[in-house]
Amino acid sequence: MSTLISAVQNFSLLTAGELALASGAVCALLVVFKPLLTGLVRAAMLVVKPKLSKEELLQRRQMRDAMLLKRMLNSMEGEPSHVAELRAIASRV
User: Fold this and answer.
1) N or C: which end of the chain has fewer CB within 10 A?
2) What SS3 state is found at 57?
3) Side-chain-side CA neighbours of residue 74 (13 Å)
4) Does pTM top 0.70 for this prediction?
């Protein structure tokens, strides 16, 4: 607590000006190098979570559709006409 009080007591107009100039310089550098920083962040994201190929996306979509049809078939056990229709749709996919 005493360090905070001493820091407030030693705070002058010159220190405030230096702080404002330093923060302004950091902001200016961020604005100038924003495209570079954005590219670095995107590259890091691709390292962590790479994009899937078209084949992998297609396989995931087909698996999701098959699971959806299976869930629908299981939920409609009592309705034979709907089950037959869903089985016909599933055989076409």
Assistant:
1) N
2) helix
3) 6
4) no
Query: How does pLDDT run across 18-74, given as a tens digit for each residue?
Result: 889 999 999 999 999 999 999 999 999 999 998 889 999 999 999 998 888 788 777
The residues spanned by each domain of the chain are 1-51, 52-93
The residue type found at 55 is E
* Tokens standing for residue 84: 């037959």
Query: What are the respective helix, strand and coil percentages of the chain, to the nearest 5?
Result: 85, 0, 15
Token pair, residue 53, equals 């190929």
Q: Can you read off the two tokens belonging to residue 33? A: 């190098």
Q: Which amino acid would we find at residue 73? A: L
Radius of gyration of the chain (CA): 31
DSSP class of 17 = H
